Amino acid sequence: MRVSRGSQSSIISRDKNGTDKAMTEKLLLAYQTDLSQLKVETMSKENPIASIQFMTKIQAEADSKREVNQEFLAV
User: Fold this and answer.
1) Taking a C-beta distance cutoff of 8 angstroms, is the pair 28, 54 a contact?
2) What is the DSSP string of 29-74?
């Protein structure tokens, strides 16, 4: 999962092995519930303060490789 707030973005979980699957599923369910209860009027008047991206296993692996490459280039 990746959480973004403004121009800042952080990976909060790269659960490639599925060990945190229950926690991820609970968070996704809570997010979906909150989003489904959000009214169009509210969405059009207010800007979101954060976003959550639920990454696939392939996305998490690609992100990890990108980080390793950036660290290697920084040295």
Assistant:
1) yes
2) HHHHHHHHH--HHHHHH---S-EEE---HHHHHHHHHHHHHHHHHH
Give the domain ranges of the chain: 2-74
Q: What are the pLDDT digits (tens) for 37-66?
A: 989 898 889 888 888 888 887 887 888 788
- Tell me the one-letter amino acid at 43: M
Q: How far apart are CA 26 and CA 37, in angstroms?
A: 17
- Taking the C-alpha atoms of residue 40 and residue 49, their distance in angstroms, rounded to an integer, is 16
Give the whole-angstrom CA distance, residue 44 versus residue 29: 23
Model pLDDT, residue 33: 93
Task: Indicate the SS3 state at residue 3.
Answer: strand
